[in-house]
Amino acid sequence: MQRWSSDVTHYLVELDHMPAPEDLDRLRGLGAQPVSLVPDSGLIVAAPDGTTAGALGVVRLRSLAPEEKISPLLRSPKLPSGAAAGWFVVEFHPDVNPYVAEAIAVQAGWLIRNNPDLAPGQVLVQGSADGLKTLAAWDEVDYIFPASRRLVRGEPVYVCAGADSQAGTLGQSIPLVGDGWDGPGLGSANLSYAFYNVTRQLPSGEVAAIIVRAFNEWAKYVQVNFTASNNSLGNETIGIRFATGAHGDPYPFGPAGGILAHTFYPAPVNPEPIAGDMHFNDANTWGIGTNIDLFSVALHETGHALGLGHSDLPTAVMYPYYQMATGLSAEDVGAVQKLYAARSTPPGSGTPPSTGTPSTPTTPTSPTTPTTPTTPTPTSGNGSGGNNGGSGKGSKDTTPPSLSVTSPASTSVTTSAANITVKGSANDASGVASVVWSTAAGASGTASGTSAWTAGPIPLYRGMNTITVKATDAAGNTSWRTVMVRRN
Ligand SMILES: [Zn+2]
Ligand SMILES: [Zn+2]
After folding, report:
1. Any idea which fold 69-153 has?
2. Per-residue pLDDT averaged across 21-46, rounded?
3. What's the whole-number average pLDDT of the chain?
4. Which ligand ends up closest to the CA of 159?
5. From start to end of 78-172, where are the E strands?
6. In this structure, is the dihedral angle defined by the CA atoms of residues 194, 196, 198 and 203, taken in order, positive or negative?
7. Which CATH number applies to 402-487?
8. Environment of ion ligand 1 (residues, CB < 5 A)
9. Would the pLDDT of 282 be above 70?
């Protein structure tokens, strides 16, 4: 096991129960820093070398073997559907500094591609699959899974922040979170759902209908029934809410273009009544069949509400980067059928034959706290300056600014200098509001000027550095360009 940082190792520790906040406090007191949760009873901690299970008072403690950190999909020579050949997403433990993450990948000989839409802690790398085990042998690496072609092409994508748990985050390696609402084994579940409110961006009846359609898509394949309720604080109830900013849980929403939604895993991973609840960030522009497609996001979030983590398969609804979907993939169906009994009626036979499944969506019920009506703002454009579509309403500006880099003259350059200044131009009909830069290693700043901008000096590490410059117009549309700089 190689290690970049000098004083701690990541260990998988196992308790005899679901880790609670008191357990995390106790481990911290013993010098073991919890970094992520491994349901049902484990967690990853960063602790000094030689720490033993006895010293921490846990049932078991061990390091992860490199092969455990590589997605099973990458053990087969067959390219997973939707995956880009030779490209991988490396997830580092959440406590690893982004500089260190990039340095490890570079040192291991991988080419790094910056993509501003990547999740924190994830790095997109290109290289030979033969090298995955060497990369996975680094202690700081948590998991490696296939990169989608969309990620590699730099198309605008939104990452799911992962479903939430009161005791911490969960890594990509966790496909099932707990046993589902039915407990261990393959049983059935009867869930309620209640709308605390709905977005005002779309007709309220349609919003409810779309979300119920997402529930029913899952209910086609497993014995889970969804029944409308008026009590969003009830147990075994998916409380649905559209909110902006801080909204009463530990995960405040950010501005448009960031997190789209989050969902709390079923009890007992989360306590009632928040277990199963689904929150949508109303700062984003919600659409129907167009980005950001409410059905696609609700379909993914419902997977979390049922107890699924993320899938490694790029074409699955549960891949961590949302994509437009009209239904579940075989991968998603296979995953949910590991938690609940399958429906005996064949998929595709229409509405599940359940008495509990409402045929008509209910309109949202009390208490309705209207969120501030948000002005729909078009979402991010892509690297080539294309139009992401926004919601297509009215005459709003949905065209991202044009952005070009004039210096360096090539998007891939080599230097021996310790820093670089990047220059270029940006133009937009409604005005360029800002030009900012960031590096894959985590440095960032604002360029001076907009129509003619200068970014830097930008610090360079030895090896490959990826610099992303992002321009935003007055309407919130963005464009970005990447420059790769190798420092000798
Ligand atoms: Zn997700
Ligand atoms: Zn929330």
Report:
1. Alpha-Beta Plaits (3.30.70)
2. 92
3. 84
4. 1
5. 83-92, 111-113, 122-126, 141-148
6. positive
7. 2.60.40.10
8. 160
9. yes
